[in-house]
Amino acid sequence: MRAEGQAHIDRIEAALSLVRMSLDWERALRRLDELNARVEDPTLWDNPKDAEAVMRERRRLDAAISTVREISTEMADAVEFIDMGEAEGDDEIVADGMASLGKLADRADADKVQALLAGEADANDTYIEIHAGAGGTESQDWAEMLQRMYSRWAERRGYKVEVVDYHGGDQAGIKSATLLVKGENAYGYAKTESGVHRLVRISPYDSSARRHTSFSSVWVYPVIDDDIDIEINESDLKIDTYRASGAGGQHVNTTDSAVRITHQPTGIVVASQNDRSQHKNRATAMNMLKARLFEKEMAEREAVASGEYAEKTEIGWGHQIRSYVLQPYQMVKDLRTGVTSPSPDDVLDGGLDPFISAALAQRVTGETVDVEDVE
Q1: 177 to each of 141, 207, 213, how far by Cα in Å?
Q2: I want to staple 81 with a disulfide (CB 3.0 to 4.6 A). Which of 97, 293, 322, 333 is the partner?
Q3: Per-residue confidence (pLDDT) for residue 363, from 0 to 100
Q4: Could you tell me the CATH number of the domain that includes residue 232?
């Protein structure tokens, strides 16, 4: 097998191995047999809600398992085709086989990411909350750049984006904003973006053209549906209303229609000012609070399962997940996976998929990477 073909095979096998690991392959096969048996039971639809859950799980498992088997078979066929061409000295057959392997490797990489989205809420819409760190205008401008980056990323994937909450900066940028991203697997793809993001650049606000470092935090949590029950005691809530505001006069209202809810036991704060109706903003904020509490519970479960304790960290040095360097050179580097890009403009225009794919894979393998930060 030529080096080119072996490289394609290695990519395919690595992708399939990761999918099998994420599924817990043998358990997934047994579970699919159980679900197939339940589907044959005529009493299944006596409880439509349970039946729909069974069908959803069966479709997901069946699709993932079928994809692994199909790619494995097609890889074996392509290898056999190439071996035949090499034995016969037919370069055209070999070239066709190599092309097939290359396409199959690309498909395996794409299907791998899709298969990694198997979490309880991965298929749901998502909130992306952005907060400027300390540093005034510099950090507030950086927070607005992140807001645009995630909006562009969502648009690239065909998702819809709504600004649920917005607080403009003192001179430029934003102090905070919350985006609602709607689309299939929106939370699954975005969930690894939670953390602190650092920007290094020559400041456009510094007349001396000095290099500045700015921080902003991103917090991602899923929109939860009626299948997920989160209990909230009204006595635990502090509810404030205030006058809505927005960039360029958007969402401006002359009444106190915006709503902020503080969940006092956890300190979680959510806010909505997207609607002119205080009642609707309160309902949206309550949904956001339920989502944050659900995400907190999932994070705690994951931390226990991995033997680690993780929580939202202070926005500052040493806690960032990614660095974006615009000066004195151009690079974006993920400090968890080691993935880099020499094109910050593309990343800031929504080109996040390579970073997301690597972070999703890391959550499955548990492998850590010793990565030096970029200055």
Answers
A1: 12, 28, 21
A2: 97
A3: 81
A4: 3.30.70.1660
